[in-house]
Amino acid sequence: MLSVEHLESGYGESVILRDVTLRVGPGEVVCLLGRNGVGKTTLLKSIMGLLKARKGKVLYGGSEVTRKEPGERAKRGIGYVPQGREIFGQLTVYENLLLGLEAAKGKNAEVPAEAIEKFPVLPSMYARRGGDLSGGQQQQLAFARALASKPEVLLLDEPTEGIQPSIVEEIRGVIRGIKAEGRTGVLLVEQSLDFVRGVADRFYVMEKGTIVAEGGIADLSDDIVRKHITL
Ligand SMILES: Nc1ncnc2c1ncn2[C@@H]1O[C@H](COP(=O)(O)OP(=O)(O)OP(=O)(O)O)[C@@H](O)[C@H]1O
Ligand SMILES: [Mg+2]
Q1: Contact at 8 Å (CB) between 129 and 91?
Q2: What percentage of the chain carries pLDDT values higher than 90?
Q3: Where does the record place the ABC transporter domain (predicted)?
Q4: Which of 151, 189, 206, 216 is the most exposed place for a label (fewest CB within 10 A)?
Q5: Position 106 pLDDT exceeds 80
Q6: pLDDT tops 90 at residue 125
Q7: Beta-bridge mates of residue 154
Q8: Secondary structure element (H or E) that encloses residue 146, with its range
């Protein structure tokens, strides 16, 4: 459904990603692991088109999207929950959700019920400003905003970073629910190995902008963790 082939990408003169190849199938939760600064966020931005690939390809839904704009990728069904959430602080919760619809212009007329049902706390906060929400509430909003466009592939960049445990559990439940529905594939960047082991089907590990290990989640050995993830 989503595949990245031999991708090279970076900022200005510096090349960050080299020869990255991965794939995410429907209903699959694939996690992307690696230490700080190895290029995980850069990879998600490149998949979304916020950063242009220098070499290689991004394929989605049977066609190549390597040269497509981010808006076009969103419209085709790639959803993105950025690291740090990027909620519009001056806009209301509801207006933030509408921006998710805007991303998929023409596809849906209103915020779909299934996006809201997953985060039942949101409707009671519709009129509040995004900036007044807690970090965990903002993360729920960012997640629901991405679901508003009914994505078929969802890119999640550290959705549990700096969030209280009860909301971490809720987010894990939502990811499991998406997996159970079997339609949407998830590419999850996550630091917590417990979280990953509880939700992912497969993993990739990055180091210095390349994939150095991959496999089924049961193959994520202590050896791999020591070598590439913990210090
Ligand atoms: N806007 C930017 N301009 C220039 N270099 C950048 C930019 N954003 C990130 N980098 C560099 O690219 C490299 C990869 O960064 P990236 O944010 O993709 O890592 P990451 O794996 O997501 O890290 P973290 O776990 O801390 O989120 C780092 O060396 C970083 O300094
Ligand atoms: Mg990052």
Answers
A1: yes
A2: 88
A3: 2-231
A4: 216
A5: no
A6: yes
A7: 79, 186
A8: helix 135-147
**Ligand 1 atom nearest residue 209's Cα:** 14
Distance CA 2, CA 62 (A): 8
How many whole angstroms from 190 Cα to the centroid of ligand 1? 15
d(CA 13, CA 194): 37
Domain ranges of the chain: 2-229
Q: What is the pLDDT of residue 231?
A: 67
Ligand 1 pocket: which of 40, 52, 204 to mutate (most atoms <8 Å of CB)? 40
In degrees, rounded to 5, the angle at the alpha carbon of residue 82 between the alpha carbons of residues 192 and 107 is 125
Domain spanning 2-229 has what CATH number? 3.40.50.300
Instruction: Pick 100 or 128 by higher pLDDT.
Output: 128
Does the beta carbon of 31 sit less than 6 angstroms from any atom of ligand 1? Answer: no
Q: What is the pLDDT of residue 108?
A: 65
Where residue 109 falls among pLDDT bands split at 50, 70, 90?
A: confident
Q: Are 182 and 26 in contact (CB under 8 A)?
A: yes
Ligand 1 lined by 83 (C-beta under 6 Å): yes
Q: Whose CA is nearest to atom 4 of ligand 1?
A: 11
Predicted local confidence at residue 128, as pLDDT = 96
Q: Is the beta carbon of 39 within 6 A of some atom in ligand 1? A: yes
**Residue 126 CA to ligand 1 centre (angstroms):** 33
CA distances from 71 to 5, 88, 110, 131 (A): 21, 18, 18, 24
